[in-house]
Design a protein that fits this description.
Strand content: 25-35%
Pfam families: 4HBT
CATH class: Alpha Beta
Number of strands: 7
CATH architecture: Roll
Protein name: HotDog domain-containing protein
InterPro entries: HotDog_dom_sf (IPR029069), PTE-AB_protein (IPR052061), Thioestr_dom (IPR006683)
């Protein structure tokens, strides 16, 4: 992967948070992830809640599932500013999601035998969708917060562990303070394992946008 200058989008993602070179190297070695890491459309950005914060914030992602046997590697990528249409398109572009997360899923995430617990997948989807919405230029300019109002998940087939998965996310519609998003969890073969739709509500300071 070639070095890229920091963008306005990356600045929104707290540039003081360093992206793990080990995670970049790990996913760059995988055929289904490498094209995104080499694409000029995307740049690695911090998966913010994987970093420890003050108080009790972020503990689930930064500690509970940040171990060698849960999620040893995780890498998120955002669409570069200027590579997306100014308006939210009528149809999502399956080949170019707005925000992508690659995640290594370890055996301690299992509910059933060799199967990742559905609650863990729901948490990953919720977090990835939130970062997708917050990474858009409208939100970064307004410095607003987004709150989950609803999350609908369809489990199509079990997600095995250990394995590596990809989460694709899209902003599909915006109505005032309401943000509508969709996501998929895919395995390394490109099979869709889980789908999600969510509604986020932005804080009232953004109501005039």
């Amino acid at each position: 992967m070639t070095d890229r200058p920091s963008s306005k989008r990356h600045a929104f993602f707290e540039p003081n948070l360093e992206i793990s070179p080990q995670d970049v190297e790990y996913f760059a070695s995988l055929p289904f992830a490498a094209p995104y890491l080499s694409s000029p459309l995307y740049e690695p950005v911090p998966f913010v809640t994987r970093y420890d914060a003050k108080g009790t914030s972020n503990k689930f992602f930064s500690k509970v599932i940040n171990t060698a046997d849960t999620i040893p590697h995780l890498l998120s990528l955002a669409r570069m500013p200027g590579s997306k249409p100014n308006q939210i398109p009528d149809q999502r572009d399956d080949g170019a999601p707005d925000f992508v997360v690659f995640v290594s899923l370890g055996p301690d995430l299992c509910g059933f035998q060799d199967t990742v617990h559905g609650g863990v997948l729901a948490a990953l989807l919720d977090e990835a969708l939130g970062l997708c919405a917050e990474s858009t230029e409208l939100v970064s300019k307004g410095h607003t917060r987004l709150y989950t109002a609803g999350l609908e998940i369809s489990y199509r087939s079990p997600v095995q562990a250990p394995s590596v998965a990809m989460i694709k996310t899209w902003v599909t519609k915006r109505q005032g303070r309401k943000w509508f998003l969709e996501a998929q969890v895919l395995d390394q073969d490109g099979s869709v394992k889980v789908e999600a739709k969510t509604l986020y509500i932005s804080s009232r300071v953004d109501a005039g946008l």
